[in-house]
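Might you be able to consider the sequence and fold that I enclose below?
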Amino acid sequence: MKALFKEIWNERPHRCAVCGYPIYEAKAHNFSHIRSKGARPDLKMDKDNIEILCSTLDRQDKEIGCHNAVHEKPSIYRERKNNGK
C-alpha cells in the first residue's frame, strides 16, 4: 500500500482533492478511498479509487480536515465537496 501511496503522491498535486488545502508531506492519513475498502474490496489498490485529502493533523487553521470530516462530520465534507472549497 505504501508504494501505491507514493506513486499517487508523485503523480498528483499536493493539495486536498476536496478543498484545495496544501499538503506538504505524504502521510497515510492523507490518502482516502472514494469507495470504501469494505464496500468495494476489489478497488482497494485502484489508484482511481484513492484521493489525496487534508487531515485535521495537517491544517494550521484549526478546521476539521476533509478526511476526518468524511467520517466525523459528513455534512461539512459534502458542503466542501459541493462548493469546491
